Amino acid sequence: MVFQGTISSNRDMLTAANTTLDKFKGILDRNDMMVISVAYPQENVLLGDSILQAEAALLWLKNTANQELGITVGKIFLAGHSQGGYMVSRLNTMHRTHGVIANAPGPLNLVYRCQIEERGQVQQSAVCTKLKNVYGLTSENGNAYFERSLLNFTNGFNVQGLNDSPIQMYSWPIFKQEVFNCTDCQSRQFVEILAGEHGSLFDSVQGKSAFNSFIGSH
């Protein structure tokens, strides 16, 4: 089950879900698996609140899909890109599956990301604007921002291009260490791709190979 990255309008949900479906199918080296792409809302919700729809999709796959689709559901893997990586990382703390793959997951640290927007260092985003409208500035209510950050949810298998944006890379070492510090994680694996950018899982031979090896070993 795969999850798309950030979109600006819910009108783009189905297009983004289909693009994500094609990208993951394009790197999968086997034909004995069904890939299901989830279109989840982002336009009128705070970042993180769509975990409810993401969880509903996973529970449908675990409990109902076999009846509705006439299939036998065996192993379940979750995979996501960017905000989709954020979603699957959080789902991994909620429900047991056979493996989770997150490519350039984020936002890792909403306090940092939204602070530099408040200072005018980078262009404003819909994500931080919506959070500010509810919680105020990061300096006023930083805990509320951090509670929605991926640094607050740390488990899984992650792929990261080391030539990603400064916003992503600022918190990557902290996120990586937090995952390694997990005491009840069954396993965890990082693949860091030199000169790789935000879509390294799909764009690099190393990312594709690691993706298929992970699935094959689980």
Give the fraction of residues assigned to helices: 40-55%
Shape label? globular
Binned strand content: 5-15%
**Going across the major beta sheet, what is the strand order?**
2-1-3-4-5-6
* Rg, alpha carbons: 17 Å
Biggest sheet descriptor: 6 strands, parallel
CATH 2nd-level architecture? 3-Layer(aba) Sandwich
| Intertermini distance | 15 Å
**Helix and strand pattern:** EHEHHEHEHHHEHEHH
- What is the total number of structural domains? 1
What do we call the CATH homologous superfamily?
Alpha/Beta hydrolase fold, catalytic domain
Helix count from the secondary structure assignment = 10
CATH C-level label: Alpha Beta
Helix and strand content put the structural class at: alpha/beta
CATH topology: Rossmann fold
Q: What is the count of β-strands? A: 6
Integer average pLDDT: 90
Low-pLDDT runs = none
InterPro entries: AB_hydrolase_fold
Write the layout of secondary structure elements.
Elements: E1 2-3, H1 13-27, E2 37-38, H2 51-63, H3 65-69, E3 77-81, H4 83-91, E4 99-103, H5 110-118, H6 126-135, H7 138-147, E5 157-161, H8 166-180, E6 189-193, H9 200-203, H10 205-217
Describe the structure using short key phrases.
6 strands; Rossmann fold; six-stranded parallel sheet; 218 residues; alpha/beta; globular
